[in-house]
Write a structure and sequence with these properties.
Blueprint (H helix, E strand, L loop, with lengths): L1 H7 L5 H15 L1 H4 L4 H18 L4 H5 L5 H9 L1 H7 L7 H15 L20 E3 L14 E4 L8 E4 L1 E3 L9 H14 L3 E2 L7 H4 L5 E5 L15 H8 L4 E7 L10 E3 L6 H7 L7 E3 L9 H14 L5 E5 L4 H14 L5 E5 L10 H6 L4 H14 L7 E5 L5 H10 L3 E4 L1 H7 L21 H4 L4 H26 L12 E4 L5 E3 L41
Parallel strand pairs: 4-13, 5-6, 6-7, 7-10, 10-11, 11-12, 12-13
Antiparallel strand pairs: 1-14, 2-3, 8-9, 14-15
């Protein structure tokens, strides 16, 4: 009932509609109501403000909440912290979230991110991190940093930007949000991951580079039974817009958990993109049906690479049981098949629909997962032939520098680009009532997100973040992003002690896992001898 009422009379327009009503009353019945001559002028001004709010293209909040939305910006001008503490829902880690969001908003709008009065963080806090600078800074020509993705079996390698849009599906995001992200990627020359919801008509509108993520539901490449369809896969993958194919084994926000998009939410556009029926439940199983062992995963990778005519094919995972990851690596060694890339998703990654226990306590955080993947590939002699991406609460240039130091070749960001679109973390993604039109399928709400305006902000955020990375590199005396090492990062571990990140993480020598004597390896590799390429399970206890 409330939904139907809201379609006829959106409650968020109350202030504007009330102003129009009171203007009419003041004009027609001023004498009867006892109103002075100033009231019609006041209500006329309010109506004018409301009309302007609905027509302007820079602030989604004002388009969705005409007149009353100005309260947010009025409080913000008095003191930014008022907006941060009272107008936005926060998690327990709210100070860090606020700092991140403020940084993104500033860069997305092309404003200066310079701040007076020194650091806003507590440098004495345990866990505080910084980068050591050089007394001999370097000078770099630009910040368009790229990495070539594509191994020996890849005939269409892709030069990927060091900073890209992480996986977010159409359906989770609105049509306008998808278009703005893709247009921003087009303007900036970086990649846009489709998420497992596949390639929608909105991904195709502006022609930005796509990484097609294929999950266990095989959306966009499935048959009527929900299994992988080579024919459907070919129809999509051979589009010039698709640059890479990413098999999703798990995602950081809810690893090992499937999902269901209820039938009432499966619109015609969503059904078209995913290859399902309108109005029927859209099921994403917890496990893939195309493979059940590491060897079969390698076969599936080869199949996709052949069907795509040599485009880069890899997989994304949040590390869980280390022995399962080791079994995959052993399958690479046994078959000679190499994924072109691996994206490591940290457990701290976000989503609009994850069980609380999964969000808080399931899966390996990015730092540990990324380092384990890097060390394993180094120890197996595979690191030079496989590129590694990192995803999981990466928003700033410092986040990127730390991920690069831990072994990443490039970084993906979801929440950073959502902030650039105007997300204020209202945490109503699941309700359809997103105040900024980012995560809603309500056609009136998403109209508040004006694609050209937000695409420019997406472009700005990408460019200014890489520019900030360039400045960090120059101050550190480095020449390439991959010169960052764990020794460049410092962390406070107690009130009186700080250590290099290299003193806090494991390091493995090249080909160390191929030797008979494994006694010098970090403890996590004690599972290595217990794994086999034929199964994800340990061979013995």
């Amino acid at each position: 009932m409330l939904d139907k009422l809201n379609q006829i009379y959106p409650v968020r327009y109350t202030a504007f509609i009330a102003s129009v009503f009171l203007l009419l009353v003041s004009l027609l019945g001023a004498g009867v109501m006892g109103l002075s001559g100033w009231w019609p002028l006041i209500f006329l001004c309010l109506c004018g403000v409301g009309v302007y709010d609905l027509q302007q293209s820079h602030h989604a909040i004002l388009r969705n909440y005409p007149i009353i939305g100005h309260l947010r910006f009025m409080l913000e001008t008095i003191r930014p912290e008022i907006r941060q503490y009272f107008l936005e829902s926060e998690t327990e880690a709210s100070p860090f979230s606020r700092a991140q969001r403020t940084l993104v908003y500033t860069r997305a709008k092309g404003q200066s991110d310079k701040r007076p009065f020194g650091t806003q963080l507590d440098v004495r806090a345990i866990g505080y991190e910084w980068i050591n600078h050089s007394i001999a800074p370097t000078h770099l020509a630009g910040h368009d940093f790229r990495v070539k993705v594509g191994g020996k079996d890849c005939t269409q390698p892709y030069d990927i930007s060091l900073f890209n849009v992480s996986a977010m599906s159409f359906g989770a995001l609105s049509a306008n949000a998808i278009q703005a992200l893709n247009l921003g990627a087009k303007l900036g020359g970086f990649a846009h991951d489709t998420g497992e919801g596949s390639i929608s008509r909105h991904h195709r509108t502006h022609g930005g580079d796509l990484i097609w993520e294929i999950g266990s539901g095989y959306f966009g490449c499935r048959d009527e039974h929900g299994h992988f369809s080579p024919e459907r896969f070919v129809e999509n993958v051979r589009s010039p817009q698709v640059k890479m194919v990413e098999i999703k084994l798990s995602q950081g926000a809810k690893p090992g958990h499937g999902g269901v998009l209820p039938g009432p939410k499966v619109t015609e556009e969503i059904a078209e993109a995913r290859g399902v029926q309108v109005g029927e439940d859209c099921v994403s199983p917890a496990a893939h049906s195309s493979f059940s062992s590491p060897l079969e995963l390698m076969t599936f990778i080869e199949q996709l690479r052949t069907l795509s005519e040599g485009k880069p094919v890899g997989f994304k995972l949040c590390i869980g049981h280390p022995w399962e990851w080791f079994a995959i690596v052993k399958a690479m060694l046994e078959t000679g098949t190499r994924p072109d890339f691996i994206v490591v998703d940290g457990a701290e990654g976000g989503t609009g629909a994850a069980p609380l226990e999964f969000s808080d306590h399931m899966g390996m955080p990015l730092q540990e997962g990324l380092r384990l993947v890097h060390n394993t590939l180094v120890g197996a002699g595979l690191r030079d032939s496989i590129r590694v991406g990192a995803s999981g609460k990466i928003v700033s240039a410092f986040d990127m520098a730390r991920a690069l130091a831990l072994g990443a070749d490039w970084c993906n960001s979801a929440r950073g680009f959502m902030f650039a679109l105007g997300c204020i973390q209202a945490q109503t993604c699941h309700s359809g009532n997103c105040p900024t039109g980012v995560t809603t399928q309500d056609p009136t709400r998403q109209l508040a997100l004006v694609v050209p305006s937000k695409a420019e902000r997406v472009h700005n955020f990408h460019a200014h973040t890489l520019e900030a990375l360039q400045e960090l590199m120059e101050a550190s005396g480095l020449k390439t992003p991959h010169d960052f090492t764990p020794r460049h990062i410092m962390r406070r571990v107690s009130e009186t002690q700080t250590l290099h990140l290299s003193d806090l993480i494991d390091t493995v020598e090249a080909n160390a896992l191929l030797k008979e004597d494994l006694s010098d390896l970090p403890a996590v590799f004690s599972d290595w001898p217990l794994t086999s390429a034929t199964s994800f399970a340990m061979t013995r206890q």
